[in-house]
Amino acid sequence: MLTLLTRVRIHPRSTFTRQAFRVFSNASPVSPLPFRFTMPTSKPQPESNSKVLILGAGNFGSCLAEHLGDSDHRVFLWSREAKVVEHFNLHHKNTKYLTEHNFSKNITAVGPDLPDGDFINEMDVLLFAIPTQFLRENLTILNRSLHKTNLPLLIFVNKGIEIGTDALTLEIIADTCGAEVAKAATFISGPSFAKEIVRRRPTSVSVASFTEAEANKTSDLFHQPHFRCYTGSDPIGIELSGALKNVYAIAAGMSDGLGYENNTRATVIITRGLAEMTCIGTAYGASPLTFLGLAGVGDLFLTCSSSSSRNYTVGYRLGQGEPLQKIIATLGSVAEGVSTTKGVKRIIDKLGVNAPIAERVYEVLYNDKATLTAVRELMDLPPSRELDLPPTAGGPAKQLMEKLGYPV
Ligand SMILES: NC(=O)c1ccc[n+]([C@@H]2O[C@H](COP(=O)([O-])OP(=O)(O)OC[C@H]3O[C@@H](n4cnc5c(N)ncnc54)[C@H](O)[C@@H]3O)[C@@H](O)[C@H]2O)c1
Ligand SMILES: O=P(O)(O)OC[C@H](O)CO
After folding, report:
1. Separation of alpha carbons 162 and 172, rounded Å
2. Phi, psi (degrees; rounded to nearest 5) at 48
3. Is 311 annotated as a binding residue?
4. Domain count for the chain
5. Which residues form the Glycerol-3-phosphate dehydrogenase NAD-dependent C-terminal domain (predicted)?
6. Does a structural domain hold residue 118?
7. What is the mean pLDDT of the chain?
8. Which of 42, 121, 192, 371 could hold 151 in an S-S bridge, CB 3.0 to 4.6 Å?
């Protein structure tokens, strides 16, 4: 380690040195040694009054627009619906999501077309609050407007895996905008219901990026006395945590919908869910420690134990006997766990990870297995060791790192 630091002549107190130590101690096991490379960065951020474009005016996009507008930033909120844009600019209300809330006057709605290159180039920050399944199409269009030498700070808050490709958001960004943009991207994840953030209830999240300076910029932008950010350098683990917890929230909802009680939710679903998440993440190539953070156990606990969670609600209604199609048609908002379960099933099959709860959620959602049968099957499994972390083969993470141009 010291030899390496000496060879690259890095000052012992520099950011790079601190990052190098962090990578060795806490990042994804297949993470690169970043100090050997030029780190892609966004344009310098102003001290205050950043110009922020939020893409996606659903519950979370609107709530984050309010959080930043409330902190004196100049916020633009893109909606793909002309009526939402018009009404928002006249009344500072969103007609579809968080409908009771009076939004900050610092927010201007834009749309329904995606803003053009000149507008994008003016922005200090682009924040994507678009559900995972629609990200690729929007990034493909936006890429034409991105000046790679004058990149805005890029923030992603979606929690899912893309159907068909099993891609994490990092890979979607690399495919559409290139590896350098993906390396500069930052990811926010953690226990954070939109409706509580707009009411300024104390909330904490994880912020991760391969480029530590970018994670710090995102943390600085969001940090408030009622909103704390904790930074890290395992974006793959952070992304997997956010996507996987949605699958286990569906399982917890099913258990409650069937009428099972606290023991079942706490032990069988939440704790075993955390063990499964950690095994899947480790086999994928993420750091097991990441799953013990806000984006992992923090968000798992939140969504598995609250009817405010849409994923929990989907599970609860399934447990009560409602068909999936009816639940999706009437939910009024996205439950990422439903589509993400497909990708998770393919990933655990490919990696050979034992994840019996995720398997049962898949069977209920896509093979008509009764929720009661799924829970009984879980209880009938033979006794096993509590935690058998698989070896860190890290196949998918390695492939992703190679795609980003890091040697692994
Ligand atoms: N709601 C929360 O509390 C919360 C918290 C943390 C993270 N998230 C994550 O944020 C993401 C967005 O969730 P949300 O709660 O805002 O969802 P939502 O259902 O409230 O809103 C979805 C938004 O996506 C837009 N949309 C739909 N199809 C689109 C397309 N083809 N192109 C572009 N936009 C499209 C809709 O117009 C809407 O504005 C999800 O990945 C979710 O997991 C949500
Ligand atoms: O409503 P859910 O289930 O999508 O959960 C929202 C957020 O992920 C909570 O952190």
Report:
1. 8
2. -150, 180
3. yes
4. 2
5. 234-374
6. yes
7. 90
8. 42
Give yes or no: residues 210 and 310 share one domain: no
The answer to whether the CB of 311 falls within 8 A of the CB of 246 is yes
Ligand nearest, relative to CA of residue 88:
1
Structure token digits, residue 296: 């992992």
pLDDT digits (tens, 9 = 90+) for 55-99: 999 999 999 999 999 888 999 999 999 999 999 999 999 999 999
Q: Is 22 annotated as a binding residue?
A: no
Q: What is the pTM of this model?
A: 0.92
Give the residue, 162 or 70, on which the prediction is more confident: 162
Pocket perturbation via mutation, ligand 2, pick of 132, 248, 310 by most ligand atoms within 8 A of CB: 310
Look up the domain containing 350 and give its range.
Answer: 241-398
Name 203's Cβ contacts closer than 8 Å, sequence gap at least 6. Answer: 190, 191, 192, 196, 197, 226, 227, 228
Q: Which residue has the tokens 């909120």?
A: 77
My answer on whether 85 and 157 are in the same domain is: yes
Decide if 135 is inside a domain: yes
Distance CA 321, CA 370 (A): 9
Amino acid at 54: I
Rounded to 10 degrees, the C-alpha dihedral 304/309/315/318 comes to 150
pLDDT at 128 over 70: yes
E strand residue ranges, 190-226: 203-208
* Angle between the N-to-C axes of helices 395-403 and 272-284, in degrees from 0 to 180, rounded to the nearest 10: 50
Please give the ipTM for the structure prediction.
0.99
Number of the ligand 1 atom closest to the C-alpha atom of 61: 16
Flag whether 17 is in a domain.
no
